[in-house]
Each structure stands twice: as structure tokens, then as C-alpha cells.
Amino acid sequence: MAKSKNEGIGEMALRYGKAFLFKGGVFGIGQEAYNDVKNKEKQAIINELFSRIENAFDNEDYGKVVNIANLIIDQEGMDEDAQRIAKWYKAKGFLLLSVDENNEQSCDTLTKAEDLFYDYGNEYGWDEDVVYMIMLIDDCLERIVNTRNEAIFLLNSDDRDYRTEAIKLYDKYTNILLEHHNFTEEIPYSERKYIFIGQNTQKIGGAYQWIDDKRVIDWIFTLDKLPSDIVLPLGRPQPGLYLAHPVNTNHYYPMKNAEETLFMDKVREFCWLVQCLGANEVSFHSNKGLSISQVMGASMNVGVDVGVNAVNVGGSYGNTRKRDDAYNYGQQVELVQHFAPKKKAYCPDDLIWLDSDPEWKRLIKQRFQGGFMEYNYKISSSETCQMTTNETNEVKANFEYIMYKVNANYDSSTDQTFSKTKETEWAIHVEFVPLEELTEETTIKLTNRTTEKEQDYLDMLKESMGDGEITPRERKMLERVRAIMCPKNESRS
Length: 493
Description:
- The protein has 493 residues and is an alpha+beta fold.
- Among the domains are: 1-125, no CATH class; 258-385 and 421-449, no CATH class.
- Helix content is 49%, strand content 12%.
- It contains 17 helices and 9 strands.
- It has helices spanning 9-22, 27-58, 62-74, 80-97, 107-124, 128-140, 144-154, 160-180, 183-186, 189-192, 255-276, 292-300, 358-370, 381-385, 389-406, 452-464, 472-485, and strands spanning 194-198, 219-222, 240-244, 252-254, 279-288, 321-329, 332-339, 374-380, 425-432.
- The strands form 2 sheets. The protein has a 5-stranded antiparallel beta sheet with strand order 6-7-5-9-8.
- The longest helix is centred in the N-terminal third of the chain and has 32 residues, at 27-58.
- Mean pLDDT is 79; it is low at 20-27, 297-320, 327-331, 444-448 and 488-493.
């Protein structure tokens, strides 16, 4: 049944009437005619309403825009596309309505507009148009964190205006954050446990994973704009993912080595504690993960002071290291360290992990009050990092999303960031000398830990040894750094 392109409702009715008369009055044709007329009427109403919305926008009558949008949304059986467009007009109308005659923005109206854009995004998807509108609202409300994240999402937008505004707002709120706020004190640890550092603003565009329950990397920075209160290892910052120390929370470590680094940090401190309490034998058994032999050469006997030369603990407590015995039992490696303590037992006052481990507190109490002679302790890398398997998987997925955004050539199959996150567990057995045999007064007390400069050097050394050898060029560089960071005449406190 032919019809003209711009056929009106009356012409349509006449055409269907002729068909009804001359083709036998078939009921199907009559029903088709009725449906076409109703759809034509509905489309005419929609066109009229949208024409009125556009006129209202031209006249800056945003209250009228919202009212007409509501008429379309409330129309029974309204076309889905028309509903979607009307909801967008309503949200945008509320945003523009938030500017009153004094050119001051109403917080309540802005919040209402934001809710409408969130509803729209949840229903129809989070495209750049939606995020851009929400970014403008958060800017008006001066929300530092939200505006930064939305700007990061839009930094690589194909829309030049969106991209320009995103760069401006990212710089604005990053500068406010760094100049007027203390990142590690004001942001809860759980929200800043992971940070991602990109090369520059061009290298973080789109990296923020918008509206995702699995997102666990909430903070993204660039090399030139980092919080001044975070502490990174020597040679940093470099692009990549970092994990915050669970106790010394302003210190961050590259995710690639974080689990191993934190694990050994706690092992070293535990060994220092038991030696100060009068241990004469400490034995190590690897239950799973890294064996003792894998780390004892690189991490167990580095940076010592006077007397004690065990597990990188140092100090002049008065213990004399007698010997280390290493044995192999099948797949398990055992290291036994012997000491001859003479000084009175005491608890060192600079233990970082003590407050976070109630077992250490019980050990100290039992040692001084009950003549404690033996102690068994297990330490796990998953506990020191405070990362469950599910969390590790979520962080890895979030990290891969970021890397695909910032590096078109990223290959997750060759990435080594999470290559060392398998759990390591060691069992440590300690035997103590009776308290009454420890009679000498401690006259000199040096810290059990390496200085910050020395630790930075050790971190750099370990990184250089990542491929199993140090090149001549790396050796010269390390020697220059060592001379600067760890001069022989520098006293230790």
C-alpha cells in the first residue's frame, strides 16, 4: 500500500478508508490503519514536545525544559529512545537550572542534577557525555577526589573540548591536593593502599576505571606531581603500581617486590626482637614459597653493625654470633643461627611491627614474667601484605585495565608485576638463655635497623641484581651512590 513521504494523519485515514472499501473491508487492514494512525499521532506529540524543549533551551527557560521532559517521560507507552532523550534533557536542565539570577549555583539543584546523570549512566551506559557532565557538577561542588578521577577518565577523550577541560581540572585539583592536604594522614589507608604512577598526563588518560565494584586502585598520579609525604625506594619514582606498607603506612613499595620486601622486613625485625630478649638459637624452616636459601645470601646477612651479624639486624647488644648451620631436608631448607648473649634482656623501642602483632606482645610478657625458654612463630607473606587471594586477583584485573589504557602495546602475559605474589611461609623456632644468666649492663644501644639511606642503597642493589648479575656500568653507578648515601664517616643513630 503506497503512501507519500510526508503523509498527514487525515491523508493516511483516507488512504486506509479506500483500501477498506475497494478491497473487501478486510479486518487486518482496518487494524493496521488504526495502529498507523495512533503511531503517527504519538510521533507528532513527541515532535511537538521536543520542539518545545529546544525552544525552552534557546530561551534559557530551564524550568520549562524540565517540565516538558517530565511530560515525555510520563507518557504511557512512550518510545524508548524518546524516554532516553527526555531523561538527558531533564538532567541537563537541572544542571543549568542550578544557576540562579545572582549567578550562584544551588547545591541542592546540583545534587539533583548529579543524581539524574547517575541514573542515566546506570540505565544507558557511562559514555563520555555523562562523565563530562558529572565532572562539571563535581567541579562546582569543589570535590577534589571525584573531579580528579573524572578528569583522568576524560584525558584522552576524542572530543577536544572535553579533553581540554579535563586537563585543566586535573591540574587544578591535583595542585590543591598536593599543596593543601596531607595525603597519607587525611586519606584512609584502605583507600590509598594502592597507587598507580604514570609517566605524565598523556600516559594516564582513561586509566580511572569508572563505576566498577572491582576497582581497588583509587589513586593515580604522574611522576611530576606526587604527594610530598609518601616515601618511595631509592631510584624511584618510576611508572608502575605501588603498595603501601601496612604499618609504616607512608612508605610505598613497587608491587613487583612488595610482598617479598615486607615479608623480609618483618622477619628481620622479629629476629632483632628475640636477640634483644636473649635468644641463643634461632632456626628457620620454609614451609612454602621462597626458601631460606633463596634469600639468605641477598637479604639475611646485609648491613650489620657490631657483634650481631644475622638477618640484617645489626646492633651492639652484646650477642656474639657463634655460627650459622644450613641443612637440606628434601624440599625444605633449614637455617640455624647460634648466639652467646651476655647483656640483660630488653625490648627495643623502635619496633615497627610490634603494635600490629599481639603474638609479639605476649612473647615479651612471657619472656620477662615467666622465664620463657622456647618460642615457635610462623610468619606469612600474605599476612604481612594483608592481601587475600581475592584482593590480589582484583588488584591484578584493575592494574591490567589501567595498563591497557595507558599502553597500547601492553601484554599481560609477559608482565612481571604480580610474578612474586605467591605466598611464602616460614616457621621460626627460638631458644633463649635463662634471664639470670644475662647479667651485663647494656652501655651502648644502637638501632637494630639500617639507616634510611642505607636501606635505599640496598633496595637499589637488589633491583640491579634482578636478572642475576650486575653489569660493570651498574657496578660503577652503585659505587657512586654508595659513596654519597653511605659514607664511612657517617655515624648511625
